[in-house]
């Protein structure tokens, strides 16, 4: 299953190595840096959970189990806010 940020709900910009975003439906400001920014950028173009785990593990030299837990937490947070869709 391919996941993607909902273009109709979120406006964002990459600033240095951070991502700043606004949920336009809720007028909520969001920000992420480091690993969250890496995952965000992947999701902006559409990706899979497995690809996110792979990218995070490679970028931060962590094992797949830890990367998977971090990815699942990040996806759960975005999904809980209604910011993800299946691409």
Produce the secondary structure layout.
Layout (H helix, E strand, L loop, with lengths): L1 E4 L4 E6 L2 E6 L4 E6 L1 H11 L1 E2 H12 L3 H17 L3 E3 L1
Antiparallel strand pairs: 1-5, 1-6, 2-3, 3-4
Helix pairs in contact: 1-2, 2-3
What does the model show?
With 87 residues, the protein is of the alpha+beta class. It has a single domain (2-80), classed as Orthogonal Bundle (Arc Repressor Mutant, subunit A), CATH 1.10.10. The chain contains three helices and six strands. It has helices at 35-45, 49-60, 64-80, and strands at 2-5, 10-15, 18-23, 28-33, 47-48, 84-86. The strands form two sheets. The protein has a three-stranded antiparallel sheet with strand order 5-1-6. A three-stranded antiparallel sheet has the order 2-3-4, covered by helices on one side. Strand 2 (10-15) and strand 3 form a beta hairpin. The longest helix is centred in the C-terminal third of the chain and has 17 residues, at 64-80. The mean pLDDT is 96.
